[in-house]
């Protein structure tokens, strides 16, 4: 007997936990992704290109750039709305969510939280509108998980600062107008607002990626980059500066990864109902249903976790290790869902005709950036035991 099919998240009734305003924002972002991203994403992925300059003003008009920040042209939405928007963006592609995360949660947040009033006035309204693109340079070739070891140096020369060093794997680097660069000074790590047309700054693009192909990833080279005294972010010194920004971006990924997973699972369900194997739909076999049931469980549990983390964030009482719980679980489960969904499509699953393999490959980057799974396990381990086991 066949009955009406429900969506995986419909089964969990998670919409009941979301306010009307947040749902309306989510639905608007979903429509944008359907109209503007889905038609082109497979080609962009295949070509290894992403029209960041073209998309940024459209994302600005959509209101998602720095959407959870207050003032300076930002929308000032709830954290929940921001998370839900990330989910819809990543259902289109992790590269799209990355663009929005790096712009809003890393580059804009760094200036919004730690910048001077002049820095905020100069950059935030244009960045919220997508007229200026930002990037965030923390990782270096030899220091990813351990940014405390960074070699990029900022030295005083009179009133000026002079920066030397390099950053690696920087999203939006080659297309950015402004880079927030973290550098070691005589005493502490400080953040610098670097216009990318400053002499000595260059950002060669990293090619031959097989993950996040529809996303710009770059090296940043700082060769005697001279900046005025006002370029430093005045409100923070020490590693807590960049790490505070990572909390924001990691929060978006807690939801974002579920968007990619949902897209894979919905594709697998649709395909299994259409594909006839041994004279009946693939969906009518118990083995298929076991896979679909298990994947739906993980998607729904991930969503409940994400909504709880968003609730804590909206109430202003979220701790970094709680964000780690969500990032670790939801990215890990999203990859598992992508791989299992692919099996349901058989050979058809390996092409760009379907989004699954693209999502699966992208999620490998998502597992690594914004803190690897191992880093998040260690953050949670420290919270549980009181022992820091990073070193
Ligand atoms: P540790 O001694 O633990 O802390 C140093 C200082 O930072 C403070 N802190 C935090 N502050 C805010 N938020 C957090 N999550 C924080 N974690 C630590 C801490 O209180 C301390 O402050 P203070 O005032 O006492 O100095 O630092 P550690 O050197 O032992 O490192 C800890 C560790 C390993 C967890 C940290 O280094 C880490 O998270 N590593 C991973 C690096 C990472 O995630 N990089 C991401 C780069 S950006 C990116 O990937 C963008 S991808 C594009 C996209 O998002 O789409
Ligand atoms: P490593 O730190 O060398 O880690 C290698 C392995 O060792 C990992 O499995 C790791 O978990 C493990 N490991 C590390 N420490 C421990 C330990 N204590 N115990 C056990 N295992 C450990 N960075 C930015 O600053 N800005 C960006 O915009 C940005 N965008 C990115 C975009 C993409 C597509 C990618 C792939 C990366 C991006 N990154 C960015 C960099 C990203 O944050 C780093 O790749 C990440 O932090 C891991 O650093 P790493 O690659 O050097 O790996």
UniProtKB/TrEMBL annotation:
Q: List, separated by semicolons, the cofactors it needs.
A: FAD
Which top-level group of life is the source organism from? Bacteria
Q: Name one GO molecular function term.
A: glutaryl-CoA dehydrogenase activity
Q: Which UniProt keywords apply?
A: FAD, Flavoprotein, Oxidoreductase, Transit peptide
Concerning SUPFAM superfamilies, the annotation shows: Acyl-CoA dehydrogenase C-terminal domain-like, Acyl-CoA dehydrogenase NM domain-like
Q: Which residues form a coiled coil?
A: none
Return the similarity comment.
Answer: Belongs to the acyl-CoA dehydrogenase family.
Which residue ranges does the record assign to the Acyl-CoA oxidase/dehydrogenase middle domain? 135-225
| Biological process per Gene Ontology, one example term | fatty-acyl-CoA biosynthetic process
Where the record annotates domain Acyl-CoA dehydrogenase/oxidase N-terminal, the positions are 20-131
Return the protein name.
Answer: Acyl-CoA dehydrogenase
- Domain named Acyl-CoA dehydrogenase/oxidase C-terminal is located at 239-384
Q: Name one Pfam family in it.
A: Acyl-CoA_dh_1
